[in-house]
Design a protein that fits this description.
Length: 445
């Protein structure tokens, strides 16, 4: 959310873009007016011989500014960075594509965020470009590069840090209870009982924001049925919502709610105003399933807790689950995509520009900014990260993941993502039974 000052850009759904970027006030939004490298906003006419490069405006943008400056020193076709304020970034992007003012290169989340553009042949298929360039092909972790695919073709080059969903825990609360982080699902259920007896909510949950509940559903379905179940859904097979693993996932959610895993008031707790994170940091909750930006969030708002009391671990396997416990869900990264309207020298220049994200200096700049780059072989760089142990944990987690599933609300088209989130919230609030949840999801088209 918009509560941390460093880290990489993320989601952008419903206008908040990165979930851990510093919240922009109205004054800042008014003042920023789509600035960058002397460029104007998306409504301006494109200058001849230049590339309009749209990026989500936040704390990581300085890395992209440097990329533009370096590129322009040697390229005849110049890049012009357009920093678009995060509120409604996706809406602005969708409105502009297909018009004369569309960006030439633009920041996105892959998956559902660009699938409609792919269907309309608006994007350059980068598959062959990447396959013929050995340096580019080997530059990124395979699970990350695959996450940017649409219809098994590559339409995006990774250009920011990774953001897996992590199970965080409060070291002080665990020590007081004589508990250890869960290594199995049985361990997790036992911890629910342990912390309830201690008068501590087992898991912080910002139930007013459905995307926080989505993280639970994503991991539970992955662990229950494997990454293949959601892949079928993402590929357009709505009948996959009827897979037995979906019902089992919904039943597990109901069981957690009934056990009191999230306390009694989670439906009124928010994330945007730091509600859940504060409960967690203050020891009112023992654990918090959240995107990796939670570390930066706590650094910004509860620094002593972040430095001394914040622990992290992986989401456990489920008994008889078919999913690989090394699988990860979340936001693999953000991507550069290239508009197919470009021809000749401008298209070649755009392709050269997006390749800058594969260079060592780019990965090092991300690390200096507090991000964990998606580039292969970045381990040594991470010793210089502001939080090296945490950075290496994330990197190893993603490097070793057989599958990294993109957050469903980004992987699916908007017309499916919004009702999906509503149904998930109703499931958590016991307004839908597990069976009713499955039926509601099967009805999504």
């Amino acid at each position: 959310m918009r509560t941390a000052v460093q880290g990489s850009a993320t989601r952008g759904r419903r206008g908040f873009g990165r979930r851990h970027a510093a919240k922009l006030t109205a004054a800042v939004l008014a003042a920023s007016v789509l600035t960058a490298c002397g460029s104007g906003g998306p409504g301006e006419e494109k200058a001849g011989g230049t590339l309009k490069v749209w990026v989500y405006q936040d704390a990581s943008t300085k890395v992209q500014r440097e990329a533009v400056e370096r590129f322009n020193k040697t390229s005849d076709v110049k890049a012009e960075l357009v920093e678009v304020p995060g509120e409604g970034y996706q809406d602005k992007m969708r409105s502009a594509m297909g018009t004369p003012n569309a960006p030439d290169v633009f920041f996105n989340w892959g998956g559902g965020s660009i699938s409609s553009f792919v269907e309309k042949d608006m994007l350059v298929d980068l598959t062959s470009e990447i396959q013929k360039d050995d340096k580019l092909k080997d530059a990124f972790l395979p699970s990350i590069l695959n996450a940017g695919k649409v219809n098994d073709k590559i339409y995006g080059v990774p250009m920011r840090g990774m953001q897996p969903v992590v199970l965080f825990y409060n070291k002080d609360v665990f020590e007081k209870a004589g508990a250890q982080p869960p290594e199995s699902w049985d361990d997790l259920l036992e911890l629910v009982d342990t912390f309830k007896k201690e008068g501590v909510t087992p898991f912080a949950l910002a139930g007013t924001d459905a995307w926080t509940e989505l993280m639970w559903v994503e991991y539970l379905l992955d662990r229950t049925g494997g990454a293949e179940v959601f892949q079928r859904i993402q590929d357009g097979d709505s009948s996959a919502w009827g897979d037995p693993a979906v019902l089992k996932t919904a039943e597990t959610i109901r069981d957690l709610v009934d056990r009191g895993a999230f306390g009694k008031n989670y439906a009124s707790v928010n994330y945007t105003a730091d509600g859940a994170s504060t409960l967690f940091a203050k020891g009112k909750a023992a654990m918090h399933l959240m995107g990796s930006w939670e570390y930066s969030n706590q650094q910004a708002n509860q620094k002593e807790f972040a430095d001394k009391g914040l622990g992290w671990t992986t989401f456990p396997a489920l008994p008889d689950g078919e999913g690989d416990p090394k699988n990860v869900v979340g936001n693999p990264t953000n991507f550069w995509s290239v508009n197919s309207k470009l021809k000749g020298a401008e298209r070649e220049a755009a392709l050269e520009f997006v390749k800058t994200a594969a260079e060592d200096w780019y990965a090092e700049a991300l690390v200096d900014n507090g991000d964990v780059p998606t580039n292969s072989g970045s381990e040594d760089m991470l010793t210089g990260h502001p939080a090296p142990d945490y950075a290496l944990f994330q990197y190893d987690l993603v490097r070793d993941a057989p599958n990294f599933t993109l957050s469903w609300d980004q992987a699916l088209p908007a017309q499916q993502a919004s009702p999906m989130l509503t149904n998930i919230q109703k499931l958590f609030n016991k307004q839908l039974s597990p069976e009713e949840f499955v039926d509601a999801m099967k009805a999504l088209k």
